[in-house]
Design brief:
Number of strands: 57
Helix content: under 10%
Radius of gyration: 27 Å
Number of helices: 5
Largest sheet: 15 strands, mixed
Oligomer: single chain
Shape: globular
Structural class: mainly beta
Strand content: 35-45%
């Protein structure tokens, strides 16, 4: 696409060695030999070796022969070559470019250019392979033999296979809410250190449940080649909170499932979704079919949507996506919606995600920027305002997204179809988008998805690229697993969002006298209403009461660190499940926030800390997903780290030798501070650093926090004359965040 088709068979050929399978994230050495074709390469002609935008393969360098990713380039005839590397020197999705230009001399047919990626001849460990699986990883070669800067792709490209490594982390996944007697499934897998489901899982495993489960075997076996195991048609006859443990053949505990609530009666159930991800047909990795199969069979999702950048979706691919969604959608088992990411420029409204109820609908692109076929140009919607006009009669939902571009919902918003905003994705955490909606008085729900580009829909590890966060999940609350039921949940904002964990969350508002619950947002016009004494997340109500009872019941997948009860932009209360007397020798240091709203939001926190008059006995990282950016204890009194944030947070816990003595000194590019250990308590010590929520926080925790469940009830006085938007944000100790969609109440 967008390249010359002139005589590709005369442009030469290339081979790579070794070929075969290589472990994701491993260090390897590859020799790529390009042999010039009939035209050769003229003086100042060039070639590009390009990789996908999503790839996090090591960045080639030629200055340090002993360091990782050392790369050498030479011509067989002695021609002088200019070599550069640029992450955006080619047309997306093949952005990442090793650029080689002949600057003195030329190449005849049969002459070669040899590129050694990870040249080990002078001590380099090699080139770091990308961290995620891809069966057909291309070293794509584009040739400009005429020095016109117009490139032709070779007809056959060198390919290797990137595969998962051995398992280091085990996961067992179950639903979070089912009724007694209802069937459910358990999914089990082992992931390698970069989050890839491993096909090297072998051996015998045993299962232990906190409650008797009909259909659950006592044990099972797996053999090499299997990426996951699913147990269907399970059920429980007694109500309760259920967790399942998995043990290996030696009796060692490998993992515990997420919590599951079994209710005697449950008219509304929980269904987990990742409604945003891309495949190789746009800017992602692996095919759309493979993305769907991963979501269903390896991430154990209930629902999904493929959301490719619209300006890369050709008409044939749009038709193929619709065929795939129709094929894979199966009510009661797996729901998938046709849709796309409307990828308008920021000044025209920024990114939106569009999901249709049915196949066969017209795609209204933000542009045809990367499409040669302009026959349907008149269907484009170049601005967000134009998009909302084009969709006004469609059976669809829209949510605002922040990726490379950010959604400007102050500029454009249509409450008829834009019912939610996406607070979190692989790109980071963006609570400021929720705040934008609150400032404008919008009634929105809160979603989290992945926008994954690495083929791991629903279990989207960020790898080692610019993506700074683990992909999010959304829990849709509906009576059944059908397209219609989940769409209704989205329209009613009956859902909550997480940064990737699966928590049981129930948020309610209870009234002293009848309140009127609207069937739809009354801002759309007259809406039917019914009297109720109780409401759930997403509901819109009018109440005469001056106060209501706000209750939260959460069963977490890890200990709970805090919960914030919020009304619009105000934090009404920050509650922690432990008292001051439970605090111990553990302190937590958190860095968070972003530079600004756009693409350059990454904030670097590389630095360290020293502890005088005390010592670090143990440390544990938090949200440091990139294994290239970790914390190292250099002595009993000092730590060093490499870290960045893109809106979310990272950091570490440290268990000190003495709970009260000494001074902690933190040194980063943005924050430098000295803190007396005795001054660190339950409340945050905050050191601001500008930007958007950019700061360091330090506080104290119990040495061990066992609080995984909370039941909280508060009387809340309602503001008059404006919407009360009541919701919670919960922080788990493992770094995951959970947001409920607000309950909207007017007086």
């Amino acid at each position: 696409m967008q390249h010359s088709n002139y005589f590709p068979e005369r442009m030469g050929h290339a081979r790579i060695s070794p070929e075969g399978r290589f472990e994701a994230g491993s260090f390897q050495s590859f020799e790529l030999v390009y042999t010039a074709g009939y035209f050769g390469i003229d003086d100042t002609g060039s070639l590009k070796i390009v990789h996908r935008f999503a790839s996090d393969m090591g960045r080639p360098q030629w200055s340090d022969p002993a360091a990782a990713n050392y790369t050498t380039v030479e011509a067989s005839n002695g021609a002088v070559l200019e070599v550069q590397y640029d992450g955006k020197r080619n047309i997306r999705p093949w952005d990442k470019t090793l650029f080689i230009r002949v600057i003195r001399g030329f190449l005849r047919e049969g002459d070669t250019i040899t590129v050694r990626f990870g040249d080990r001849s002078k001590g380099s460990p090699g080139m770091r392979v990308q961290t995620f699986s891809e069966p057909t990883f291309e070293f794509r070669i584009l040739v400009d033999p005429f020095a016109t800067y117009h490139y032709t792709a070779l007809p056959v490209q060198p390919v290797i296979s990137v595969v998962a490594g051995p398992p280091v982390l085990w996961k067992a996944v179950v639903p979070t809410l089912r009724q007694t007697g209802q069937l459910f499934r358990l999914g089990f897998k082992g992931e390698d250190k970069w989050g890839n489901p491993s096909d090297q899982v072998e051996g015998l495993f045993t299962l232990r449940s906190s409650h008797p489960i009909n259909g659950l075997p006592a044990g099972f076996s797996m053999k090499a080649g299997e990426h996951a195991r699913v147990f269907d048609s399970l059920s429980v006859t007694e109500p309760g909170e259920l967790r399942i443990e998995v043990f290996d053949a030696a009796g060692a505990r490998l993992c515990e499932s997420n919590p599951m609530r079994i209710a005697a009666e449950a008219p509304l159930l929980h269904y987990w979704a990742d409604l945003h991800g891309q495949s190789e047909e746009t800017i992602g990795t692996n095919s759309a079919r493979e993305l769907i199969e991963f979501a269903r069979d390896r991430a154990f999702l209930d629902a999904m949507s493929h959301q490719g950048n619209d300006f890369q979706i050709t008409t044939p691919f749009w038709q193929e996506l619709n065929r795939l969604t129709a094929q894979f959608n199966e009510d009661g088992r797996f729901v998938i919606y046709p849709g796309y990411e409307w990828s308008g420029n920021t000044g025209l409204g920024g990114d939106r995600n569009v999901m249709f109820m049915h196949e066969g609908r017209q795609i209204h692109r933000s542009s045809h920027a990367l499409l040669d076929d302009l026959s349907d140009l008149e269907t484009d919607a170049n601005s967000a305002t134009d998009l909302f006009k084009a969709l006004k009669d469609e059976d669809c939902v829209v949510f605002a997204h922040i990726g490379g571009r950010y959604a400007d919902i102050k500029m454009a918003h249509d409450l008829r179809i834009e019912r939610s905003v996406e607070v979190h994705s692989d790109w980071g955490t963006f609570e400021w988008l929720v705040h934008d909606a609150m400032e404008q008085g919008y009634r929105i729900g809160i979603l989290a998805n992945s926008d994954g580009h690495k083929g791991r829909h629903g279990a989207s590890h960020p790898g080692a690229s610019l993506f700074g966060a683990y992909g999010g999940l959304s829990c849709l609350i509906a009576p059944e697993l059908t397209r219609e039921a989940l769409f209704d949940a989205l329209r009613k904002r009956h859902h909550y969002a997480t940064t990737g964990c699966r928590m049981v969350l129930d948020v309610k508002a209870r009234f002293d006298s009848d309140a009127q619950r609207y069937a739809d947002d009354p801002n759309l016009g007259a809406s039917a209403a019914e009297p109720v004494r109780e409401a759930m997340m997403g509901d819109i109500l009018h109440a005469a009461d001056q106060q209501l009872e706000f209750s939260v019941h959460a069963v977490a997948s890890a200990p709970i660190e805090r919960i914030e009860i919020r009304n619009r932009l105000e934090v009404l209360e920050t509650w922690r499940p432990y008292a001051d007397h439970e605090l111990g020798r553990r302190i937590r240091v958190i860095w968070e926030g972003s530079e600004y709203r756009g693409r350059g939001r990454q904030t670097v926190w590389d630095g360290g800390c020293t502890l005088s008059g005390n010592r670090f006995e143990r440390i544990a990282p938090i949200n440091l997903w990139n294994l290239d950016k970790q914390i190292v204890q250099t002595s009993p009194e000092s730590l060093e780290w490499a870290a960045l944030t893109t809106g979310g947070f990272g950091g570490f816990d440290a268990w000190l030798g003495d709970a009260r003595s000494g001074v902690l000194q933190i040194d980063t590019p943005l924050v430098k501070c000295r803190i007396n250990i005795a001054d660190i308590g339950r409340d945050d010590l905050v050191f601001e650093a500008g930007g958007i929520g950019r700061r360091i926080r330090v506080f104290r925790l119990p040495d061990e926090n066992r609080h995984k469940e909370l039941m909280l009830s508060r009387r809340i006085r309602l503001n008059q004359g404006v919407d009360n938007a009541l919701y919670v944000c919960i922080t788990q100790e493992d770094g995951h965040l959970i947001w409920s969609s607000p309950i909207y109440v007017t007086r």
